[in-house]
Write a structure and sequence with these properties.
This protein is an alpha+beta fold. The protein has two domains: about 5-80, Arc Repressor Mutant, subunit A (Orthogonal Bundle), CATH 1.10.10; about 100-180, ADP-ribosylation fold, CATH 3.20.170.30. About 35% of the residues lie in helices and about 20% in strands. The protein has six helices and eleven strands. It has a three-stranded antiparallel β-sheet with strand order 1-3-2. Strands 4-7-11 form a three-stranded antiparallel β-sheet.
Length: about 180
């Protein structure tokens, strides 16, 4: 499988399944699921050649497991990271004492003042380990890793959710819970 093509398809799927399904006139249900046949047809119609074999490859080999099929592979959705309103039916979970967030230097002053905000997404994303946070932060430059006192947050009443692809989600992280 051509990795360059797979990466390009993965980026396009992130766009249409997380942010802008209207780009290809794709319909998502309230839980973010798209019909696989409709997705393939509309991607191909819009210049992104896609077939079931390539889609399977992208879902199975995406390093962050960004996408998931339903049990019979007739539907697909993004695991998390939506800027559109979808209900992922996440169950509340108890986090470890510390979780991590990868960012870059230009956001540090704002984070020190306002904490971590979900911005255009549905949740703030946190990683279970520093290595993953380094990868996340490194996508936009030199990574800055923040340690989040998630155990203390949880004890103080903040809710946490664990996505299907093991990304920790919460509504916001006040600056007082962040170790810079």
């Amino acid at each position: 499988m051509n990795e360059k093509i797979a990466k390009s398809i993965s980026k396009f799927l992130s766009l249409v399944l997380r942010h802008s399904p209207e780009t290809i006139n794709l319909k998502l249900d309230e839980n973010g699921w798209a019909d696989v046949e409709e997705l393939i047809a509309k991607c191909s119609k819009n210049g992104n050649t896609l077939n079931s074999e390539l889609l399977d490859y992208v879902v199975e080999n995406n390093d962050k497991k960004r996408f998931a099929f339903n049990e019979d592979k007739t539907k697909i959705r993004a695991s998390q990271g939506h800027s559109i309103s979808v209900e992922l039916n996440l169950n509340e979970a108890e986090p470890s004492e510390f979780l991590y967030h990868g960012t870059v230097g230009k956001f540090m002053e704002s984070i020190k003042k306002e904490g971590l905000q979900k911005m255009s997404r549905q949740h703030v994303h946190l990683s279970q380990d520093r290595e993953t946070a380094i990868k996340v932060g490194g996508r936009r430059g030199t990574p800055q890793i923040l340690s989040v006192r998630s155990g203390a947050m949880h004890r103080d009443g903040f809710k946490f959710y664990l996505s299907e692809n093991n990304v920790w989600l919460t509504d916001a992280v006040p600056a007082k819970y962040i170790e810079f």
